[in-house]
Every structure is written in structure tokens, then in C-alpha cells.
Amino acid sequence: MNKARKKLLGGVIVVSLSCWAQQQGALAETLESALVKAYGGNPTLNAQRALLRATDENVPRAKSGYRPRVSATGDVGASTVTSRGTPGGTGSEDFLPRGAGVTLNQNIFDGFRTSNSVRAAESQVFGQREVLRNNEQNTLLDGVTAYMNVLRDTATLNLQRNNVEVLQEQLRQTQDRFNVGEVTRTDVAQAEARLAGARSQESLAQANLKSSLARYRQVIGVEPKQLAPGRSIEKALPKTLPAAIEVSQAEHPAIHAALHGVDAAEIQVKVVEGELYPSLGLQASAAQRYDVQTPGDERTSASIVAQLTIPIYEGGEVYARTRQAKETAGQRRLEVDVTRDQVRAAVVSAWGALEAAKAQITAAQAQVEANEIALNGVREEAKVGQRTTLDVLNAQQELLNSRVSLISAQRDRVVNSYQLLAAVGRLSARTLALKVEEYDSKRHFEQVKDKWFGLQTPDGR
């Protein structure tokens, strides 16, 4: 295997993909720096982080069941009492009844509903963290795909433009030979047709590049300018397919999210069942009243009451919701199996695609080398009349197709390596050693889980 072939198998996008960047000057953007931008600024990913922070608030909401609920009331009014036929004659009294009071309700026992609700809320938070981790994987993979698509489409457009220039020269030479009677009008028409087709392919390549540029802007957040070649990350991958499957089943965030969903669903069964248990609460109140019966009188009252509630029959509604919660828990357990199968299939598919891309690079490189030799030979033979213009055009097209195939295979190898890393559940800023502050999904949770009051979020909103 020659040195050029070994370089290709190293997973590097070769000169054909980076020529555009080199023409623009120094390389200003690498794949890693683009992923840093996507990790920090992608709006879809930031929206998922906000969703996780919102989910964190379910824990203090559930814990509120342990805490007292205090309310204050106040009232004021006016009344007049008119008396007739009394020994004192007719008279009236004006009252200004008013008062204020405070009431405290404290849960003592609620059939373990509060404790189970807290556990369910925590499971939801853990599950949402895994969903966020999966979204981070998807965002990074989208960033890699967008980056490599721009490189591929840029190189393809350069090839198509070069092909147009070559065919223009081929048409000029064919017309010259036609003018001196060496070829027929058919040869000129064939050259003209190929040139028209090449211009069409150039327009298509330009449209594809514009689409890739727009997608890059959407995912990365900036316009691509000068992109360095991308490399595959096969060193970070498991060495064998069975090892990759085993890692994915143990580490993939989608599986962990599904498992936390099972925990939350099973706890929810206990929450609903708790409604059938007795509940015990304490209510304390104090009030101050003025002008209740006579002007100027004042009354103070206070009470503390313990209340025990024993449900006897709820019309079957609680029983139905309990059965419903059990069926939901069963559904979540089945969804874990579905997710495991989906992850396994994704690993197998990504592994096969990566292996195919490697083989395609080797084959495409050999095809390019052979087509270059063939084109040079056909051109020389055409000069002495042993080949027709159509033979030259066909050889030129074969070489172009093989070069485009090589570029696509090189792009596929890089993207598929990241795809496989995502399929096993290890595509992250830490794995890629990105120079970015990793988002701490636990920080907000620790800030709010025990908050008793406060309207501002931890970041001051």
C-alpha cells in the first residue's frame, strides 16, 4: 500500500477537500472550534437545557407537601342597628366590624404521597438529564455533518467548475479539428452536449453548497469561511462490533432516560395508591375581631385542630387511576426494550457504514488513479485517430465521477465515525476534548431543590 493510500485510510479529508480553504489563505476554522460554537450557542440545545432547569423545579414543588401552608385574612365593614319600642325609645348604633386572622395547615401523614412524589420528581430530573445528554450528542453530530457537508460540496463544486473548463477546452480543440476536417459535426455536437451537462452539474453543485452553508449557519451559529480538513475519531471507538454494542447498552443516554422513566412510572403507582390511605393534618388559627356585637368590643380567638381523614369509597376513581398507572409503568418497561433494540440497531448500522466508507475510499482512490491513466492514454490515442471524441469525453466523465466518489467517501468516513461514537453513547464535549466549559446539569438542581421561597431564578431572572 503506497503512502497516499495510507494517508487516505488515516481518515483525513485530503487536498481536494481543503483546496478551497487554502485558496482563501490561512485556515481559520477547525472542526473542533466549530463544535465549540455549536455546543455553546445552538438554540435547540439551549432550549433543552432550559427544559431541564424547568424540570428541576418539580422537586421543590413536590417537597412543598412537607411544608406548612400559611394564609392570612382580613375584613372590614359597616353596619347600623336601629331599635324601636324599647324603654329607651328609638335609637340606633353604628358598628365597624373588622378583624384579621392567620391560619396554618400542616400535613402530618398523607399516605406517603409526598415522599413518593419527591422520588418521582427526582427520577424525572435524572431522566431529563439523560435526554439533554442525548441532545448534546445529536447537536455535536449535526455540527460534524454540517461542517463536512460544506467541505464536500465545496470540493465537488471545484471539481465541477474544473470540469467545465476542461470541456470548454475540449470543445475548442474539437471545433479546430472540425474546421480542418479531422472530425465530423457529430464530434462537435457531442462536446457541446457534454459541456452543457457539465454546466448543469456545476449549477446543481452550487445549489447543494448553498444549502449546506445554510445548514451550517443553523447548527453552528456563524457563517463558514475558511474550514480546515476534518479527521475521523476512530481511536475513540470500541475496537470490535460486540464491544461497541456492549458499551452502547451500558452507556447510551436514551437507555438511561428510559430506565428513569420506568422508575418514575413505578413510583407514580405508589403516589396514586396513597390516596386510599388515611391522612392526618394539623390546622392552627388565630383571629382578632373588633365591633362584633357592640361598639368598642374586642375578641381574640385561637384554635388548633388535628384532623384524621379515612377514605372509604371514592366511586372507584382512585382504583381506576391506580390500575392505569400500573399499565403505564408496564408500557415504560417495554419502551426500555424498544430503546435498547433501537440503540443496538444504530450501532450495527453505523459500524457497517464506517467500514463501507473505508472500503469505498480505497476503491475510489484506485479508481481515480486508473481513470487518470486511462484518460491520458485515450487523449494520446485520439490525437493519432485511434480514439473518437466520445471516447475522450467518456474517459473525462469517468475520472470526474471517481473523484466525486472519493470526496463523498472521505466525508462519509469522518461523519460515520462520529455517528458510531454517538450510537455507543460517548459523543460529548469531554470525549472530543473541546475547549469549552461543560454545561453542569446538576448546578441548577442543587440551587433550587431545597428553596422555600423566592421568585427569582438562580441566574437572576
Automatic annotation (TrEMBL):
Compartment(s) of residence: Cell outer membrane
Region described as Disordered: 59-92
Signal peptide stretch: 1-21
Statement: the UniProt record of this protein carries the keyword Transmembrane: yes
Top-level taxon: Bacteria
Main location: membrane
Annotated Pfam families: OEP
Entry keyword set: Cell outer membrane, Membrane, Signal, Transmembrane, Transmembrane beta strand, Transport
InterPro entries named among the record's database cross-references: OMP_efflux, T1SS_OMP_TolC, TolC-like
Similarity comment: Belongs to the outer membrane factor (OMF) (TC 1.B.17) family.
Protein name: TolC family outer membrane protein
Native species: Chelatococcus albus
Upper classification of the organism: Bacteria, Pseudomonadati, Pseudomonadota, Alphaproteobacteria, Hyphomicrobiales
